[in-house]
Amino acid sequence: MIEKIFKFIVIALLVLAPASSFALSEGDSLPPFTTEDIDGNPVDLQEVIGKKPIMIVFWASWCPSCFFEVPKLNSLYDEFGPQGLEFYGVNVDQNDSVNQALKFMAKAKMRYPVIYDTGSVITNNYEIPGVPTIMIVNKKGEITFKKNYVPEFTQQSFKDINQ
User: Fold this and answer.
1) Domain holding 109: CATH number?
2) Number of neighbours of residue 90 by Cβ within 10 angstroms
3) Cβ distance 102 to 116 under 8 Å?
4) Is 7 part of a structural domain of the chain?
5) 4 vs 28, higher pLDDT
6) Of 2, 35, 40, 47, which one has the greatest count of Cβ atoms within 10 A?
7) What is d(CA 123, CA 136) in angstroms, rounded to the nearest whole number?
8) CA-CA-CA-CA torsion sign (26, 148, 69, 106)
9) If you compute the radius of gyration of the chain from its CA atoms, what whole number of angstroms results?
10) Beta carbons within 10 angstroms of residue 132's beta carbon
11) In this structure, is residue 15 part of a structural domain?
12) Structural domain boundaries enclosing 34
């Protein structure tokens, strides 16, 4: 009996595995979302997509790599935010709380806007595999970068995604 159950599970996983190939990836259009940032300010990505390039940083307070990426991200925010790159940090709300997120933000000295993703709705819709995940979206709304590290980002990179 256990052997039959095991075979069923293996077959089910093989059948379902290709579904993961539908995850958002580089070249895909970014679906919009509407929410509030952690300070209660409205965020409507529909107002940004097609008008500005976007960087979205998915993170959690318990993630050491997320903490060590913040200085690089702050530098990018300071340099490219004033030039029109929209920034959003998204706390994935997995084994986290708003208080833990706020403490992490203060300790890491995050300077960019943060969304607390209650129930991981955005995280699940964007099929984020883990934290940190950095997504860069060009002005046309296409994902140009989706990886688990902060990319080397230059003025030329900004020009490329701002066309």
Assistant:
1) 3.40.30.10
2) 28
3) no
4) no
5) 28
6) 35
7) 15
8) positive
9) 18
10) 23
11) no
12) 26-161
Q: Is the dihedral of CA 88, 93, 96, 100 positive or negative?
A: positive
Q: What is the number of structural domains in the chain?
A: 1
Residue 5 inside a domain? The answer is no
Amino acid at 144: T
Residue reference for tokens 């095991």:
6
User: Does position 94 have pLDDT exceeding 60, yes or no?
Assistant: yes
pLDDT for 11-53, tens place per residue? 333 333 333 445 899 999 999 999 999 999 999 999 999 999 9
Q: Does a structural domain hold residue 18?
A: no
Question: What does the DSSP assignment read for 47-102?
Answer: GTTTTS-EEEEEE-TT-HHHHHHHHHHHHHHHHHTTTT-EEEEEE--SS--HHHHH
Cβ neighbours for 152, distance < 8 A, ≥ 6 positions apart: none
